[in-house]
């Protein structure tokens, strides 16, 4: 597993899903930033240690900063 965390905004969408899967296959830890974090857990499973799903709204500067913390 890679030490780096990649945050993907829109990770539950059509393109974002594919990006998340690709990054996971490459060994990255992925943080899925979405308005509905439960969708990320449903799509990718909540028990994968490589994945984290957090709530974020691209129009809210604070939630974006929180989603990017440590990435």
UniProtKB/TrEMBL annotation:
One of its GO terms (molecular function) is protein-containing complex binding. PANTHER family: NADH DEHYDROGENASE [UBIQUINONE] 1 ALPHA SUBCOMPLEX SUBUNIT 9, MITOCHONDRIAL, NADH-UBIQUINONE OXIDOREDUCTASE 39 KDA SUBUNIT-RELATED. It comes from the Bacteria. SUPFAM superfamilies: NAD(P)-binding Rossmann-fold domains. Pfam families: NAD_binding_10 (PF13460). The lineage of its organism: Bacteria, Pseudomonadati, Pseudomonadota, Alphaproteobacteria, Hyphomicrobiales. Residues 10-71 form the NAD(P)-binding domain. InterPro entries: ComplexI_NDUFA9_subunit (IPR051207), NAD(P)-bd_dom (IPR016040), NAD(P)-bd_dom_sf (IPR036291). This is NAD(P)H-binding protein. It comes from Allomesorhizobium camelthorni.
């Amino acid at each position: 597993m890679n030490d780096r965390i990649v945050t993907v905004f829109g990770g539950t969408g059509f393109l974002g899903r594919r990006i998340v899967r690709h990054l996971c296959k490459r060994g990255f830890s992925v943080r899925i930033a979405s308005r509905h974090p439960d969708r990320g857990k449903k799509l990718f499973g909540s028990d994968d240690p490589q994945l984290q799903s957090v709530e974020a709204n691209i129009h809210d500067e604070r939630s974006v900063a929180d989603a990017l913390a440590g990435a």
